[in-house]
């Protein structure tokens, strides 16, 4: 295979002479490194639970506009060489040079460039884009390229297993080698005979589920000793396999076991020492459904399960009953996901070489068995210009450069197995994608779940893939098409026409997407015309990956196709400490709508306190949807995620790594409807996650199981003996004295008048509350009296006022609206007002500040100085009266990132709104934990096994903001 490719490359090179590379980002005669300011930093990471230092490297060099988080993750994950050794990388320049110079050298050797000058321009352009976080290769490139290790560049692998013991054992071996290299793999087990079929020896086959146990144990063992990330795997079974019901219920049954063990006192959290006793926890499971089965579900008819050896129907089941079992299992434990087989293979460019049977662990890469795909993602926010337009021309040129580099990497890449290497070199599968879509839409004033948002996303995705295939056709004219093209030419051209037809069906909603769509239409027309002559260099071009670790490397607010995670983020600071900040895409969106700077500042301050935009001062309700996020008070509805996936899927060679999040109270029927809508929308794959559906996945706070699970037999016996003695603890009521200090407050909420009398203990502390809202004898007056008595007794029995404030603030009902209180200008209800007023009158500053409750003076002070606290005489003021950076270590101003240059614009830059920055609570170590503190509810995310913080979703995987660890591939 390699010999054939080499001969054809030489011939094509002689015929065409190579590519001419134009400058897009760089300046002739100036190296990209000379255009930035460099600074040295110390990277020290600790596990916040144990206090153990897990990494330390001091004096590393990065551009001054790179965030602390990005530089920390790159240093810990991607710098090569032993820490402390002389050959350890210490600068971003070394890392980028190691990769880019390897790519450039390979490009020269394999005839990609016309002249040496073209090669130099290519080197400088890639360097500039990586330096300025315009795009990033997937993690294996940074791990391996330019080192003495095998040059593995692919993150995604698909294996194959046949119905023989040798093949099954080889599956275990190949999967282990891939996990050891820090990547993930998927495969379809449907060739293995079911437990309802006979062996040639006369016995009964074990079935694929039994062999999954061995693979699961192997993955768990390798995961424990992995150096880069946990093992990630996907197991797929066809819906017509006779063991499909056992497969569907496999993980839900294990979830029942987890609950039973947890209730018995064992540590069943993710990473807990007892979780290894349950099976099938190291893989994502997916059912491969056919159109025949889905039509049977719609019609309520029977469906045949077929023998693996003969293809005959050996059992007929009710399609709706089986569909219900799939939905129920997904409702119970988030597995299995769904892969839509006929849609996948209808968009298959190389069907003559084999069907698409499986995917990688995150479900974005789908192609031939024993193949791989290397990924790269562009940062979409880098192409949004100051005038609010998307620079489609700059984006298209950048895509050309990136896709060229990705194809070059296959020329020198190593692969974990010979079959994978042969297939990848023969079909040259690539997976270009993007990150920061959610941030781009918000900054553009477009809601994620809106026709306008979907039109822009579809146009950008179409442009990306259209330009990629156009460049692939150009490369085919230079170095030849992929080896398998001749056999699959007709099918490949058919799929290209399908992409172009889907592009023609996109309807623009505004000037922002219409200009992008026009360029995409041109790219498809020119690329398909050129491809009919040259063929294409790559059988696949694009996917939408999770972009977990590399998303942090690019300082992206959002990963892959995801909406913004939350409006308030956790941010690490130079010199240590961390801050709570409001996303800077929010002021950009508000200005897009024409809000004044004063209103923008007020809204940003409100979001900093509340974490959401509901009832933000001056913000129009019709603009709320623009700021909807993945979690929080205004989270995007499940079908909103499905509709966005459906908008971009026709423009991707592969699929989309994304999980549709559903609320805890979602029903099994709603899960089934989401999966059904995915099929109707022509998606290729879909997974759901219902909040709190898994025991072993979320980090449970304050769980006694964690401490008791590993108790010795003697300890358990002692505990059982002690349990026989019952000690009853009762609260004691602390009554107020006959004479006590009290205050009366008159108030108006939404036009309704009322009075509040609050009495305190002599030694401070609220102990009594009376509310008067209507005439004596009315229903409202009676309810207020009863409520006041209940709260008063609770206070006297020791219920903290803070608890009441947490429960009753933000409660919404009429009357609501404006108040006559200068400290609480807007109120969501009478209860909301009353407990805000009580918090201001009776709670210390630190307590109510953590709850986001401040006086008018404190809010004004924050706008002027960046802090809510009253300045003391010892605090330093700058010359302009602003609060000095060193006077409060954790309130240091954030250094603004230097924006990447874009095409010249005549629109003057708008002065940025100061970030709503304030110290985060000591127990917060990630954005997920920050949102928990603001919202008062637990987020369904696993903990990072490296640094102990809560991870956040990234596609169908999770990623750690602290150290960059992921639960899948990126």
TrEMBL record:
Entry annotated with the keyword Phosphoprotein: no
Cofactor list: adenosylcob(III)alamin
Molecular function terms from GO: ribonucleoside-diphosphate reductase activity, thioredoxin disulfide as acceptor
Reaction catalyzed: a 2'-deoxyribonucleoside 5'-diphosphate + [thioredoxin]-disulfide + H2O = a ribonucleoside 5'-diphosphate + [thioredoxin]-dithiol
Alphabetized Gene3D superfamilies for the sequence: 3.20.70.20
EC number: 1.17.4.1
Residue ranges constituting the Ribonucleotide reductase large subunit C-terminal domain according to the UniProt record: 154-689
Keywords tagged on the record: Cobalamin, Cobalt, Disulfide bond, DNA synthesis, Nucleotide-binding, Oxidoreductase
UniProt domain TSCPD: residue ranges: 737-840
Signal sequence residues: none
Protein name: Vitamin B12-dependent ribonucleotide reductase
Ribonucleotide reductase class II vitamin B12-dependent N-terminal domain ranges (all copies): 42-133
PANTHER family in UniProt: RIBONUCLEOSIDE-DIPHOSPHATE REDUCTASE, VITAMIN B12-DEPENDENT RIBONUCLEOTIDE REDUCTASE
Species, as recorded: Aquipuribacter hungaricus
Family annotation (NCBIfam families): NrdJ_Z, PRK06556.1
Enzyme class name: oxidoreductase
Family (UniProt): Belongs to the ribonucleoside diphosphate reductase class-2 family.
Job description of the protein: Catalyzes the reduction of ribonucleotides to deoxyribonucleotides. May function to provide a pool of deoxyribonucleotide precursors for DNA repair during oxygen limitation and/or for immediate growth after restoration of oxygen.
């Amino acid at each position: 295979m390699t010999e054939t490719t080499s001969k054809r490359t030489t011939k094509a090179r002689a015929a065409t002479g190579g590519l001419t590379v134009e400058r897009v980002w760089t300046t002739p005669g100036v190296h990209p490194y000379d255009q930035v300011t460099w600074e040295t930093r110390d990277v020290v990471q600790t596990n916040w639970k144990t206090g153990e230092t897990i990494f330390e490297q001091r004096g590393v060099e990065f551009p001054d506009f790179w965030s602390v988080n990005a530089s920390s993750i790159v240093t810990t994950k991607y710098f090569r060489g032993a820490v402390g050794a002389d050959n350890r990388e210490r600068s971003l320049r070394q890392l980028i040079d190691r990769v880019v110079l390897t790519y450039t050298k390979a490009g020269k050797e394999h005839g990609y460039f016309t002249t040496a000058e073209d090669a130099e321009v290519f080197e400088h352009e890639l360097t500039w884009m990586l330096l300025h976080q315009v795009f990033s290769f997937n993690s294996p490139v940074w791990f391996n390229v330019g080192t003495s290790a095998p040059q593995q560049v692919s993150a995604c692998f698909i294996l194959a297993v046949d119905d023989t013991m040798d093949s099954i054992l080889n599956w275990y071996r190949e999967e282990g080698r891939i996990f050891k290299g820090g990547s993930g793999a998927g495969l379809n087990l449907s060739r293995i005979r079911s437990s309802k079929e006979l062996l040639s020896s006369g016995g009964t086959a074990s079935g694929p589920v039994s062999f999954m146990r061995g693979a699961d144990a192997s993955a768990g063992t390798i995961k424990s000793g992995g150096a880069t990330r946990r093992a990630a795997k996907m197991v797929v079974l066809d819906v017509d396999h006779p063991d499909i019901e056992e497969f569907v219920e496999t993980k839900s049954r294990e979830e029942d076991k987890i609950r039973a063990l947890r209730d018995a006192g064992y540590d069943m959290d993710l990473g807990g020492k007892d979780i290894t006793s349950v099976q099938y926890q190291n893989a994502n499971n997916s059912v491969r459904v056919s159109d025949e089965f889905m039509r049977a579900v719609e019609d309520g008819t029977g469906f045949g399960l077929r023998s693996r050896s003969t293809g005959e129907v050996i059992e007929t089941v009710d399609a709706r009953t089986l569909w219900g079992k799939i939905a129920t299992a997904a409702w119970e434990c988030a597995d299995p996901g769904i892969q839509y087989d006929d849609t996948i293979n209808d968009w298959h460019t190389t069907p003559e070489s084999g069907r698409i049977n499986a995917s990688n662990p995150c479900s974005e890469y789908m192609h031939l068995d024993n193949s791989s795909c290397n990924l790269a993602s562009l940062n979409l926010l880098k192409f949004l210009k100051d005038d609010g337009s998307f620079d489609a021309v700059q984006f298209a040129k950048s895509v050309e450069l990136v896709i060229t580099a990705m194809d070059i990497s296959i020329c020198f890449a190593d692969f974990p197995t010979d079959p994978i290497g042969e297939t990848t070199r023969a079909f040259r599968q690539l997976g270009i994608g993007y990150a920061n879509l959610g941030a781009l839409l918000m900054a553009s004033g477009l809601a994620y779940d809106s026709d306008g948002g979907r039109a822009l996303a579809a146009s950008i995705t179409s442009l990306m893939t259209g330009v990629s295939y156009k460049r692939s056709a150009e490369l085919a004219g230079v170095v030849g098409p992929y080896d398998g093209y001749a056999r699959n030419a007709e099918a490949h051209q058919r799929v290209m026409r399908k992409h172009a037809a889907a592009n023609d069906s996109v309807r623009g909603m505004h000037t922002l997407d219409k200009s992008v769509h026009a360029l995409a239409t041109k790219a498809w027309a020119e690329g398909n015309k050129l491809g009919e002559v040259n063929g294409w260099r790559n059988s696949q071009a694009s996917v939408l990956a999770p972009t977990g670790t590399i998303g942090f490397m690019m300082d992206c607010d959002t990963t892959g196709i995801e909406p913004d995670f939350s409006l308030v983020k956790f941010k690490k600071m130079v010199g240590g400490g961390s801050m709570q900040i409001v996303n800077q895409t929010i002021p950009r969106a508000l200005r897009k709508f024409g809000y004044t700077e004063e209103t923008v500042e007020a809204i940003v301050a409100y979001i900093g306190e509340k974490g959401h935009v509901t009832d933000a001062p001056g913000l129009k309700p019709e603009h709320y949807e623009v700021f909807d996020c993945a979690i929080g008070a205004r989270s995007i509805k499940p079908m909103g995620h499905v509709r966005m996936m459906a908008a971009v899927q026709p423009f991707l060679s592969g699929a989309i790594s994304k999980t549709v999040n559903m609320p805890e109270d979602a029903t099994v029927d709603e899960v089934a409807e989401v999966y059904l809508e995915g099929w109707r929308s022509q998606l290729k794959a879909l997974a759901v996650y219902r909040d709190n559906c898994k025991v072993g996945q979320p980090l449970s706070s304050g769980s006694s199981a964690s401490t008791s699970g590993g108790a010795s037999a003697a300890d358990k016996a002692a505990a059982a003996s002690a349990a026989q003695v019952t000690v009853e603890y009762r609260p004691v009521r602390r009554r107020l004295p006959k004479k006590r200090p009290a205050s009366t407050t008159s108030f108006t909420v939404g036009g309704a008048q009322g009075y509040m009398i609050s009495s305190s203990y002599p030694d401070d502390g609220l102990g009594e509350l009376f509310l008067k809202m209507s005439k004596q004898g009315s229903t409202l007056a009676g309810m207020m009296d009863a409520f006041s008595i209940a709260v008063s007794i609770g206070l006297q029995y020791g219920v903290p006022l803070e608890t009441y404030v947490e429960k009753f603030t933000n409660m919404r009902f009429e009357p609501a609206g404006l108040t006559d209180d200068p400290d609480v200008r807007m109120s969501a209800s009478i209860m909301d007002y009353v407990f805000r007023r009580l918090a201001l009158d009776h709670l210390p500053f630190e307590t109510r500040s953590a709850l986001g409750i401040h006086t008018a003076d404190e809010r004004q002070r924050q706008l002027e100085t960046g802090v809510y606290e009253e300045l003391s005489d010892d605090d330093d003021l700058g010359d302009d009266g602003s609060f000095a950076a060193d006077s409060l270590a954790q309130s240091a101003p954030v250094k603004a990132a230097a924006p990447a240059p874009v095409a010249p614009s005549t629109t003057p830059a708008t002065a940025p709104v100061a970030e709503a920055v304030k110290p985060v609570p000591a127990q917060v170590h990630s954005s997920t934990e920050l949102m928990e503190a603001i919202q008062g509810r637990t987020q369904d995310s696993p903990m990072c096994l490296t640094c102990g913080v809560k991870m956040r979703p990234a596609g169908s995987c999770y990623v750690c903001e602290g150290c960059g660890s992921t639960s899948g591939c990126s």
